[in-house]
Amino acid sequence: MTKRESYDELMRQARGLFEGERDVIANAANLSALIWQGLPDLNWAGFYFLKGEELVLGPFQGKPACVRIAMGAGVCGTAAAGARTVIVPDVHAFAGHIACDTASNSELVVPLIDRGRVLGVLDLDSPSYGRFDEEDAVCLERLARLWVEACDFAS
Hints:
Distance between the termini: 41 Å
């Protein structure tokens, strides 16, 4: 199976998991588990939600993580502050990287955006350098949009 076919399968499974469910936490928990099970070479997959001026840990798979990250700090805070996906092939070369798990060597963070408002981020870490590329970014952005569309958010 190609990488694109793997992501297409993840999209299909995510649609099935989200069908009839609008809860933010339930859908985040299921998507992080689905990504964890469906993508190779990850050591962390999960969510951070924007609360005030910081990102707060949400559902995830992997080792315990940093609970709060300031906007603009680390890879997650950079992606959230810029409302853009960030791919880091070597987190040790990223100025201000926050090392929650010293085994992580590369990272991809996708902002979660609803009607122009950043809600948080979807964060993936890998023990391998250069694990993530543009194809991963595009496909994970699709999964993030699907998650946003499947959830009800408080105003």
